[in-house]
Amino acid sequence: MEVKRKIIHIDMDAFYASVEQRDFPELRGKALAVGGSPDGRGVVATASYEARKYGVRSAMPSRQALQLCPHLIFTRPRFDVYKEVSDKIRAIFRRYTDLIEPLSLDEAYLDVTEDKQGVGSAIEIAKAIKSAIKEELNLTASAGVSVNKFIAKIASDYQKPDGLTFLGPSKVIPFLEQLPIEKFFGVGKVTAQKMKSMGIHCGTDLKQLSEVDLIRRFGKSGKFFYHMVRGEDNREVKPNRISKSIGIEDTFETDLREEEDMKRELESLCDKLEKRLLTKSKQGRTITLKIKFEDFTQITRSFTSPFYTNTAEDMKTQIMELLSKVDMQDKKVRLLGVTLSNFYENDLEKVQNRQLSLFE
């Protein structure tokens, strides 16, 4: 007999902004954006719920955020503080299980099928974790409880902020069938628009399509969508899941010859990479430029800074410097890529391991 997993997905509420409002009373109750700037440069990392009422969202350009909310207050991110708070949250998780899979500083999956304290109820564990985070750290978190990772993640987002949603085996299918298509994990704005144009507005509509048809229309994602709407997800919670790098690349329909065209494409890639980094709460020190030429030969060039960053502005400066040192020899370019690595958490772990080895 298959044992049903007990999975909890914990997602902190407006994490960066909530930490800033906790630490600085004058920011409480105010429309706040962490990241970006009042001069319209950069993008928002996290918006407080007061700012979200105006439509301000993470990864939104500052200029757009200001248009939506002219009285928006901007503050610089304090990643060292967020990391410290995140470590304390993980310590609370470890009271109940060691099967913890962090997705970023502010969210994680927990497998509590067998919990350390013998509580036996995933719902009670989720309540206890939320209570401890509120009492000990003066922050709120939302929790989703279900039989797999995918459903737990959807559940945690259902009653934000400070919510707790339980979806037991008998509730999963009815819940997914009525769920608006844009609420499904992995369905972005573009995909949602495409689905709606096909008459797919909720889970029930999506279930009408076969796996073959979904793959034909959406490629590899179609297979994921087919199983997703049926609540099928066999992925295990994997502890120590650490991203070593995050990158983005683009292959061009027409090979690039002019340097200005290459610069323009690289700037666009840096903008997109910034959004991915903010979504995953990552800062890195090493930027890598990837170039594939028309003859399919490929080169990479890297630069490691003494400082951490995740802003498009910094990455553009570094990537243009790397590009200027590449001898193009009148070659055409068919692909460009930008990658950031040497992340804050990874470097911190290396330092801690070195320190341990000194005493062993």
TrEMBL record:
<dbReference type="GO" id="GO:0006281">
    <property type="term" value="P:DNA repair"/>
</dbReference>
<keyword id="KW-0460">Magnesium</keyword>
<dbReference type="InterPro" id="IPR036775">
    <property type="entry name" value="DNA_pol_Y-fam_lit_finger_sf"/>
</dbReference>
<keyword id="KW-0234">DNA repair</keyword>
<keyword id="KW-0808">Transferase</keyword>
<keyword id="KW-0548">Nucleotidyltransferase</keyword>
<comment type="similarity">
    <text>Belongs to the DNA polymerase type-Y family.</text>
</comment>
<keyword id="KW-0479">Metal-binding</keyword>
<dbReference type="GO" id="GO:0003887">
    <property type="term" value="F:DNA-directed DNA polymerase activity"/>
</dbReference>
<keyword id="KW-0238">DNA-binding</keyword>
<keyword id="KW-0515">Mutator protein</keyword>
<dbReference type="InterPro" id="IPR022880">
    <property type="entry name" value="DNApol_IV"/>
</dbReference>
<protein>
    <recommendedName>
        <fullName>DNA polymerase IV</fullName>
        <ecNumber>2.7.7.7</ecNumber>
    </recommendedName>
</protein>
<dbReference type="GO" id="GO:0003684">
    <property type="term" value="F:damaged DNA binding"/>
</dbReference>
<dbReference type="InterPro" id="IPR043128">
    <property type="entry name" value="Rev_trsase/Diguanyl_cyclase"/>
</dbReference>
<feature type="site" description="Substrate discrimination">
    <location>
        <position position="16"/>
    </location>
</feature>
<feature type="binding site">
    <location>
        <position position="106"/>
    </location>
    <ligand>
        <name>Mg(2+)</name>
    </ligand>
</feature>
<dbReference type="InterPro" id="IPR017961">
    <property type="entry name" value="DNA_pol_Y-fam_little_finger"/>
</dbReference>
<dbReference type="GO" id="GO:0000287">
    <property type="term" value="F:magnesium ion binding"/>
</dbReference>
<dbReference type="InterPro" id="IPR001126">
    <property type="entry name" value="UmuC"/>
</dbReference>
<dbReference type="GO" id="GO:0005829">
    <property type="term" value="C:cytosol"/>
</dbReference>
<keyword id="KW-0235">DNA replication</keyword>
<keyword id="KW-0239">DNA-directed DNA polymerase</keyword>
<dbReference type="GO" id="GO:0006261">
    <property type="term" value="P:DNA-templated DNA replication"/>
</dbReference>
<keyword id="KW-0963">Cytoplasm</keyword>
<dbReference type="InterPro" id="IPR050116">
    <property type="entry name" value="DNA_polymerase-Y"/>
</dbReference>
<comment type="subunit">
    <text>Monomer.</text>
</comment>
<feature type="binding site">
    <location>
        <position position="11"/>
    </location>
    <ligand>
        <name>Mg(2+)</name>
    </ligand>
</feature>
<dbReference type="GO" id="GO:0009432">
    <property type="term" value="P:SOS response"/>
</dbReference>
<keyword id="KW-0175">Coiled coil</keyword>
<dbReference type="GO" id="GO:0042276">
    <property type="term" value="P:error-prone translesion synthesis"/>
</dbReference>
<keyword id="KW-0227">DNA damage</keyword>
<dbReference type="Pfam" id="PF00817">
    <property type="entry name" value="IMS"/>
</dbReference>
<dbReference type="InterPro" id="IPR043502">
    <property type="entry name" value="DNA/RNA_pol_sf"/>
</dbReference>
<dbReference type="Pfam" id="PF11799">
    <property type="entry name" value="IMS_C"/>
</dbReference>
<feature type="coiled-coil region">
    <location>
        <begin position="256"/>
        <end position="283"/>
    </location>
</feature>
<feature type="active site">
    <location>
        <position position="107"/>
    </location>
</feature>
<feature type="domain" description="UmuC">
    <location>
        <begin position="7"/>
        <end position="188"/>
    </location>
</feature>
<dbReference type="Pfam" id="PF21999">
    <property type="entry name" value="IMS_HHH_1"/>
</dbReference>
<dbReference type="InterPro" id="IPR053848">
    <property type="entry name" value="IMS_HHH_1"/>
</dbReference>
<comment type="function">
    <text>Poorly processive, error-prone DNA polymerase involved in untargeted mutagenesis. Copies undamaged DNA at stalled replication forks, which arise in vivo from mismatched or misaligned primer ends. These misaligned primers can be extended by PolIV. Exhibits no 3'-5' exonuclease (proofreading) activity. May be involved in translesional synthesis, in conjunction with the beta clamp from PolIII.</text>
</comment>
